[in-house]
Specification:
With 126 residues, the chain is an alpha+beta fold. The protein has two helices and six strands, in the order αββββββα.
Length: 126
Amino acid sequence: MLQGHWFEFFRPSVWIGIFIIYLWYKANRSVYHVEFDDEFLYVRLKASDLIIPLENIKDVNLVSLGGVYRVDLYYKELIGDKFYFKPSLLYPLNHKKKEAVVDILWKYINQAKQKRTVIPRNALHS
């Protein structure tokens, strides 16, 4: 067993480090990587990708200073009615470029909502 003042000094910092790593893991396990084009948002899951039409997206909001965005959906998908994504691991350092990418996503969402086809209520469904 190690004895001495240096070991007693560093022991609390080891537990604090483990706790910080645990909090980081817990906060980021539900954060997904996303890509998009002018029609769909692609959510990268572990086994496969999930394709979400841009018309289904209700809102995209920045929820933390670390650069985590929340996407609210009109209809539940496989991952629920909302999910989180982070555009970059270095978000505080390159926030202007990544916020410009999210602005492009907003532009595509607004264009998709304008092109959305509305089915009349009296339409015959098969």
